[in-house]
Amino acid sequence: MSEFSLNLNEDQLQLQKWIHEFGVDVIRPAAEEWDEREEFPFPIVEQAAQIGLYGWEFMAEAMMNDPSGLTMVVALEELFWADAGIGMAIMGTGLAAAGIAASGTPEQVMEWVPQAYGDADNLALGAFAASEPDAGSDVGGYRTRAVYDEAKDEWVLNGTKAWITNGGIADIHVVVAVVDPELGSKGHASFIVPPNTKGLSQGQKYKKHGIRASHTAEVVLEDVRVPGRCLLGGKEKLDERLARVRRGEKGNAQAAMQTFEATRPAVGAQAIGVARAAYEYSLEYAKERHAFGRPIIQNQSIAFMLADMATEIEASRLLIWRAAWLGKNGKFKNAEGSMAKLKAGRTATWVTERAIQILGGYGYTREYPVERWHRDAKIHDIFEGTEQIQQLVISRAISGLRIE
Ligand SMILES: Cc1cc2nc3c(=O)[nH]c(=O)nc-3n(C[C@H](O)[C@H](O)[C@H](O)COP(=O)(O)OP(=O)(O)OC[C@H]3O[C@@H](n4cnc5c(N)ncnc54)[C@H](O)[C@@H]3O)c2cc1C
User: Fold this and answer.
1) Active-site residue 384, yes or no?
2) 5, 51, 132, 285: which one has the fewest Cβ atoms less than 10 Å from its Cβ?
3) pLDDT tens digits, residue range 223-270?
4) 191 pairs with which residues across the strands?
5) Are residues 159 and 232 in the same domain?
6) Centroid of ligand 1 to alpha carbon of 344 (angstroms)
7) In angstroms, what is the span from residue 163 Cα to ligand 1's centroid?
8) Which tens digit of pLDDT belongs to each residue from 121-158?
């Protein structure tokens, strides 16, 4: 176990600088174009793969060789500072990788995670498909079914997934499906749908408010047949788990909580990357823009807004770094991961809105990037658990009660 420290080590500082430079040189100049095109920015992700920023080795290194937990959050803040839409395009496959790592055997992780990324010459993408049109927060409401065909040792998947990052354009889809409808959210399992599997297609592609370079679409599964080995964790483990649930034995809720909490600081780090971009830009703008014969920053109303923006970002980052360390070291007590994500999402939405205010009319136009950052910030209050779901998790953790 490492001690919690706010000092980044040499490797982390190098990584931060490396991503910042890629952000300045490659991502920022491309951000506006891909936001307007609302398409997956393949050429940019290919460049990220060429330098090793997009790839399974990067994820493995950042996740496994870092006892502090800070490497990933530092990387994400920098990437999303450059652009959240392209950042999400680069990081979307990580959702699939995390899904495989969470439920798969070590052999399955080694087989499927590299396939989800491909390589610089032959880029691949992964998608993690859990949400459905009628069930986002309410995971017990999933309807996508997986039925085992014992004669062929195959699973047959049917249903529709909604809001899926890289949905339909991914090579590897990780699909969460119901294997026992009577057990609610405890009757789920995750499956790999390998490349070019018959029956999987893209439904509608959503036209979004923000992170428009990231592809988000429905995934339709019609009699999708996958081999038995595509069940993450394997059949024996699934049968054992379902039997335990049917006997009414309590699962390891503490372990499950630690897993969910551990991914949330990462989303918070993305949010403050966007917030920092907007804060830095509006600080410079306020020093240069003159009104009534002086720079607008010399009005307290503007300077104090910037002071509050800086303070909120610093406070959010402290929560995120602490939560990332707690997550890595299995130390969560009161849903600190949810607290960090809740705070950072709100900070990003608020800071980017204030940035528009500081730029005035210019801030409201597409000539300046702050309106894009405001659109990009809002997603962090919604995905990976909405504001209200974070509040639910936190209130249950601090009270020990079943708050509804
Ligand atoms: C751009 C984007 C990318 C996404 N990527 C993925 C992905 O890759 N994979 C994936 O599986 N999903 C993905 N999602 C889905 C995302 O996780 C869901 O949108 C989110 O969980 C919310 O679900 P919902 O949209 O169905 O909203 P709902 O659950 O219908 O919520 C609607 C409102 O009701 C509130 N609410 C719901 N239940 C409660 C409650 N019990 N108490 C209080 N308030 C409540 C919510 O907070 C929200 O304000 C993505 C979504 C977006 C927009």
Assistant:
1) yes
2) 5
3) 999 999 999 999 999 999 999 999 988 766 666 666 667 789 999 999
4) 175, 231
5) yes
6) 17
7) 9
8) 999 999 999 999 999 999 999 999 999 999 999 999 99
The protein residue with its alpha carbon nearest to ligand 1, atom 14, reads 163
Name the residue of 134, 161, 163, 193 whose CB sits within 8 Å of the most ligand 1 atoms, as the mutation to test its pocket.
163
Catalytic residue among 78, 336, 371, 384: 384
Counting ligand 1 atoms within 8 A of each CB, the residue from 386, 387, 392 with the most, and so the one to mutate, is 386
The residue whose C-alpha atom lies closest to atom 11 belonging to ligand 1 is 130
Query: What φ, ψ does residue 9 adopt, rounded to 5°?
Result: -80, 175
Distance between Cα 383 and ligand 1 center (Å) = 6
298 within domain boundaries: yes
Q: What CATH number does residue 326 fall under?
A: 1.20.140.10
Two structure tokens written together for 331? 């130390």
What separation, in Å, do the N-terminal and C-terminal C-alpha atoms of the chain show?
36
199 and 337 housed in the same domain = no
pTM above 0.85, yes or no: yes
Please give the residue range of the domain that contains residue 147: 126-246
**Does 136 lie in the same domain as 86?**
no
- Are 169 and 219 spatial neighbours (Cβ–Cβ below 8 Å)? no
DSSP state of 155: E
CATH number of the domain encompassing residue 110: 1.10.540.10
**Ligand 1 shell residues, CB under 6 Å:** 95, 128-131, 136-138, 163-165, 208, 211, 216, 379, 382-383, 386, 388-389, 392
What are 39-77's pLDDT values in tens digits?
999 999 999 999 999 999 999 998 888 999 999 999 999
Q: How confident is the model at residue 13 (pLDDT cuts 50, 70, 90)?
A: very high
Which residues are CB-contacts of 158 (< 8 A; sequence separation ≥ 6)? 144, 145, 221, 222, 223, 224
Which of 200, 218, 246 delimits the end of a domain?
246
Atom of ligand 1 nearest to the CA of 206: 1
Task: Give the distance, in angstroms, between the CA of residue 42 and the centroid of all CA atoms in the same chain.
Answer: 19
290/345 same-domain check: yes
Q: Which two tokens stand for residue 200?
A: 């999987």
